[in-house]
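Structure (tokenized):
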């Protein structure tokens, strides 16, 4: 939807985006507007159906169909936003990743505000995970001349694995340090149940 076969979207030496039909060439703003509109329509239909937005309570086929439609459109919107940040925002890969990280941090802070339902915060956070992955991945893998770190697939995978293991260690330390029911702690503890 966003791209077409014009030279700005093609790798050096290529003449098309690949086999099959080329992109519509609408550009990022128009593509985002269409995807946001489709997502609003999906949420409006979901709301009109009277079915819950609470994911753990989705049990019917109709609710599942609405949920997965929202997921599909959200993923597409997030990927498009990541491409926009990477290719035409002027922020660069690192700047785009920092912007999205900041927005996710703001959503995490809003979780502490009692009047803002977590269900409402889930969808923007879900959409933002895609551009975060795209911009951070581009930052790690793209050549230095284009603003990346040029770590390649293996190097970027090693960095991301280290980040994942580090976050798991931090979560485990928080879990054992604070225990269940404490601020910042989890509901799982290593303590034996009391008799």
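Design, position by position:
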């Amino acid at each position: 939807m966003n791209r077409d076969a014009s030279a700005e979207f093609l790798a050096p030496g290529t003449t098309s985006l690949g086999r099959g039909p080329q992109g519509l060439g609408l550009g990022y703003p128009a593509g985002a507007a269409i995807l946001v509109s489709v997502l609003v329509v999906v949420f409006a239909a979901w709301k009109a159906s009277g079915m819950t937005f609470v994911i753990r309570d989705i049990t019917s086929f109709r609710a599942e169909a609405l949920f997965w439609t929202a997921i599909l459109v959200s993923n597409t919107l997030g990927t498009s936003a990541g491409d926009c940040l990477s290719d035409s925002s002027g922020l660069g890969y690192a700047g785009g990743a920092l912007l999205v990280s900041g927005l996710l941090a703001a959503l995490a802070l809003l979780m502490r505000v009692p009047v803002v339902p977590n269900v409402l915060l889930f969808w923007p956070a879900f959409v933002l995970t895609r551009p975060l992955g795209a911009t951070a991945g581009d930052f790690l893998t793209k050549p230095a001349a284009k603003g990346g770190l040029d770590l390649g697939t293996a190097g970027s995978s090693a960095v991301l694995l280290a980040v994942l293991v580090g976050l798991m260690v931090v979560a485990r330390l928080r879990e054992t340090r604070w225990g269940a029911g404490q601020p910042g702690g989890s509901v799982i503890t290593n303590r034996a149940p009391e008799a």
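Reviewer-requested clarification: Residues 185-195 have pLDDT under 50 and may be disordered. Residues 68 and 176 are 36 Å apart (CA to CA).
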